């Protein structure tokens, strides 16, 4: 998919939100404030980023075809914070239960010649190591955590192995880590069901002029601060469709 642009700093009343459906075999219908937003939303897809007014939305999630008169699988309020670039990931916990985690994407400047790689563990699987060209770059990553690195721009072969072993769980897959972009890799699916997979998301627009390069970082794979911690965690995979059409149905936060 095309690279998503970073949120302009001056845009303080909205957020840029993408959603990733990472629960195998689960199709859902999603409602916001009583209105159907998206029927028949299928797993394995990542939406284009949407600009949403900041605010609170009441979400109801039904098994495909069971809404709105049935009992929702979940009824939750979701806060959309102003100014954030975020991805909402519907996925499985390590134990295999559907859940949903929203991550704030790091859209800070990247030194010239470098690229940011973020790995997110959203699979029903134990701790994993992520390797680039056979070398571990992220170790003992657990669900639903993430880790970010700044690396030289270029193409790398990435795979996911069980932590501390050479047992490949996912991959290898070639990643094109373009200069000035953040590439987010989601390890998703279920180890027990043998359907583990990778999904990538690219966010662009973070280039830095060559004069701004920190000489201590040039040419090395340096550990970067972990991306901002998840700003929302709430149960069930069905809410994956929330971002697409929320803007038309914004409501003010409730006082209760």
TrEMBL record:
Residues 15-131 form the DUF4397 domain. InterPro entries: DUF4397. Keywords: Membrane, Transmembrane, Transmembrane helix. It comes from the Bacteria. The chain crosses the membrane at residues 231-248. This is DUF4397 domain-containing protein. It comes from Streptomyces macrosporus.
């Amino acid at each position: 998919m095309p690279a998503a642009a970073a949120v302009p700093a001056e845009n303080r009343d909205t957020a840029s939100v993408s959603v990733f459906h990472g629960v195998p075999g689960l199709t859902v219908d999603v409602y916001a404030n009583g209105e159907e937003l998206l029927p028949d939303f299928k797993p394995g897809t990542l939406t284009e980023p949407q600009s949403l007014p900041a605010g609170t939305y009441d979400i109801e999630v039904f098994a495909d075809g069971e809404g709105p008169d049935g009992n929702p699988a979940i009824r939750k309020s979701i806060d959309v914070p102003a100014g954030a670039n975020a991805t909402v990931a519907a996925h499985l916990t390590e134990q295999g239960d559907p859940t949903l985690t929203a991550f704030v994407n790091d859209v800070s400047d990247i030194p010239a010649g470098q690229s940011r790689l973020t790995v997110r563990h959203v699979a029903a699987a134990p701790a994993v190591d992520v390797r680039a060209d056979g070398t571990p770059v992220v170790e003992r990553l657990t669900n639903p955590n993430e880790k970010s690195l700044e690396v030289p721009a270029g193409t790398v072969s990435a795979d996911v192995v069980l932590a501390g072993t050479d047992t490949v769980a996912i991959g290898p897959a070639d990643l094109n880590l373009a200069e000035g972009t953040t590439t987010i890799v989601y390890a998703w699916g279920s180890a027990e069901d043998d359907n583990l997979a990778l999904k990538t998301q690219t966010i662009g627009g973070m280039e830095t002029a060559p004069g701004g390069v920190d000489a201590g970082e040039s040419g090395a794979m340096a550990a970067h601060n972990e991306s901002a911690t998840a700003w929302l965690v709430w149960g069930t995979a069905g809410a994956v469709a929330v971002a697409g059409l929320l803007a038309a149905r914004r409501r003010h936060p409730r006082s209760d």
